């Protein structure tokens, strides 16, 4: 059981969601977040004075899946969210101890589907 | 049965709508409006048979009526500029102060008006003499003057308090309305430069002072027959200080007050770093600022063409076109100057400042210059407004959130200089009691230019000193500045009791930048 956390561009959410639907990804959660990576934000100007906006709005998607699904989902996200420019985001994968379905009380792999 | 009733109702409605129209045609209605208005409409002892004198009286009455309608309607346009100021100032400042900034722009209108009504109007126009375009009755005939060098120096008027006594006169009421909205324009300029940190109660007191004393006294010197207007008659300097619609009387006065006020108040928390370099504090609503700019530009069609005080003075067309041309070149040049010279972007808030700068600069010369000069005046104002804004912020270290000093102060002065330079001698015969048309330095009258310079100097000294005293007096008695914790929180809740955007989460620009 793995947790996939993908940080992507806001405007790419629609494409990523459609691509995940196409491969029948079971479910996902979406968060609006602020953050920066290597790029360290952007410079704006007001009345001729520049200022740095170092926390940029991004979208975070979280998906919990079986181990054998991880590769396919990650590939799909990378393909759909890529613009080949700075700021495309990152994906983190971690192991999940267990999962419980609240309605039935089932736990373990069966609760993920 | 049901169908039949429906048809009956329809037929009834049809006849109700169209039969009267047919009947009217029989009674000679005038749908094209070609023959409405005849001899019968002339006020006469025997209706339809006016005597020649009655005809002449009617013509005179009609001329004054056209002028008065013009004065009132252009005055209504200028009144709406208050909305423009409110939107520009609030749009260029932060969301956490929106209710406070709007509330200053809201209340300056009634506060200034009552001050002007009680005594401001009397100080300014009490010694004006006859209002030539509105009937010419000599009611406002008391000017307090002193004698210097054997010449009379008019200082302020003393008739027309509370529009009572002889001032209860339709022409004087029309003049009051028009001049009152001009005064309010001046009064609302400093609320921009002093936004986001000014105690509301201090603003309240200032609002009364500007309407009762500061604006009317200088205004009397220029428009009320005072000593600056008489520089021509008394000392042979052209037509004296000539300011057609108020580059100095309205805008420079507002700009100088804005400068002194912002200086005494000090910069907003976080505006300057420890090494003195300025930070950007982005405004929260540029669309609001742009719409406000357009409202102001629209109101300016009242401001400048209305200042003829006469719809029968056909120079209004030249005035209106000059006004729009200068606003165009001001906006274009300011935009290009930011884009190509100062930074890499066109900067929408500076675009707004550029258009307003062109309008302020053309306000004094609009009636006296040709269209090419109007464009040149706008071009200069576009560069001037940006360089002035950078100078005030970067060198003087005076924090003016909306650029009020650069727009109104600096370009007000430029407008007066431009009148003394570009006036082309096609208009203004008899202006300020001097025969001949108004000519600037480039058209052969150096005295006119000198009078303009004296007008500017007098504004800076008088408004600067009195403004300093008023702001300083408020400072040592009740204080001008809000507590730092209120400023950081935003003035809306501590000062006004409610948030301008209640229930809306502030974005990243709601924060105060931290000084480095």
Protein structure class of chain B: mainly alpha
Question: Hey, roughly how much beta strand do the residues of chain B contain?
Answer: under 5%
Spatial extent as radius of gyration of chain B: 26 Å
Question: How many separate helices of chain A?
Answer: 2
Most extensive interface, chain pair and sizes:
A-B, 11 and 20 residues
First and last CA, distance of chain A: 11 Å
- Overall geometry of chain A: elongated
Radius of gyration of chain A: 17 Å
**Which sequence of SSEs, written as H and E, runs from N to C of chain A?**
EHEEEEHE
Secondary-structure element string of chain B: HHHEEHHHHHHHHHHHHH
Instruction: Give the fraction of residues assigned to helices of chain A.
Output: 10-25%
Question: Looking at the chains present, what oligomeric state does this protein adopt?
Answer: heterodimer
Overview of this structure, please?
The complex is a heterodimer of chains A (113) and B (516). Chain A is built from 2 helices and 6 strands, in the order βαββββαβ. In chain A, the strands form 2 sheets. A 4-stranded antiparallel β-sheet of chain A has the order 2-5-1-6, covered by helices on one side. Chain A has a two-stranded antiparallel sheet with strand order 3-4. Chain A is elongated and about 60 Å long. Chain A has 113 residues and is α+β, with helices and mostly antiparallel strands. Chain B is an all-alpha fold. Chain B has helices spanning 2-26, 52-91, 98-125, 170-188, 190-193, 200-223, 231-235, 247-265, 286-303, 316-342, 348-363, 371-395, 404-422, 446-477, 484-489, 492-496, and strands at 143-148, 151-157. Chain B has a two-stranded antiparallel sheet with strand order 1-2. In chain B, strand 1 and strand 2 (151-157) form a beta hairpin. In chain B, helix 4 (170-188) runs parallel beside helix 8 (247-265) and helix 8 (247-265) runs antiparallel to helix 13. The A-B interface holds A 34, 44-51, 53, 55 and B 278-283, 338, 342-343, 345, 347, 349-350, 386, 389-390, 393, 403, 508, 513.
